[in-house]
Amino acid sequence: MSEQDYERGGRQQAIYSDEDVETAVCPLCDEPRQDRLYTERGVLGVVKCPSCELIYVSPRLQNPEHVYWGEAEKYTEEARLIFAGRAAHHRDPNYLHDLAIIERYKPTGHFLDIGTNMGFFLRHTRNRSWTAIGVEPSVSLAELARKHFDLDVRTCFLQDAKFPNGHFDVVTMTDVFEHISHPRAMLSEIRRVLKSDGILFIKVPNGLFNVLKLRVLRRLGRLGMLDIFDSYEHVVHYSSSTLRKMLESEGFKVRKQLIAPPIQIPVWHHFVGQYYQYPSPWALDWKRQTARTITYYASRLESLAMGGKVGSLAPNIVVVAEKM
Length: 324
Known about the structure:
Elements: E1 21-22, E2 35-40, E3 44-48, E4 55-57, E5 60-61, H1 72-83, H2 92-105, E6 109-114, E7 130-135, H3 139-149, E8 153-154, H4 158-161, E9 168-174, H5 183-193, E10 194-205, H6 207-220, E11 236-237, H7 240-249, E12 252-258, H8 269-272, H9 286-305, E13 316-323
Parallel strand pairs: 6-7, 6-9, 7-8, 9-10
Antiparallel strand pairs: 1-5, 2-3, 3-4, 4-11, 10-13, 12-13
């Protein structure tokens, strides 16, 4: 079964045409020139800015967030055992890891999660010392978060929530910032609603890791129709350097930079034709799970050799940032 054949809740398509996309300039420095790295799903282009080296998607979907505006019934099927309390979410170890980092810096206060989805991350803030709110523009996802986890989730984009100035002690974007087409505008609004001593927590996939995968697969002759960059939804691909530049451009400074453990994605869809969000047994995907784990530990050794910098082997990048 191919990656495109299985049933899934979102609105993603296997192939996009010129009518679905728009050309973008660099989201960091507004440079119109771009060097093409790869093409996915027909016309989606993964490019690199020759000026600031940011990797982003152009042409990109006109409204990439609409990928998540699918039917509530299909999303419910993906997560029904989690909603019923009969199974964990496959990202729960990652979510708990992220919250442990945040608690070191801000164990109490007002907590804002951007891109809450169905609430799987935000639900772990319950029984802790935060007052937590989420924002999620997908009507179906936000409603599921409220219905099944009783979370305070606003159905809107951040700029439409009209939160007061300097209200939040913590703002989080866990695997969300790479979905944002206009990241500088997002950071500007976050800076407005964040307290002067508040922290911003961001976790994103490492763009350099995807470039490394592209080079290896190309050399092995195994590119095919693979989604290496997930460019239908991930519209900006950060390295530690370009993420730092992006934050600094809007008045933030990086306080801490980390490599988080890999996300072990379930593979039920290969066997039953349906994507489920609870973990699949290790035996069903032992090669990739083992490879992800080995690569993660190799990335930590690479970081030590580079004096703490995040290199190409890291699967993702975590930063804790604060206002300058």
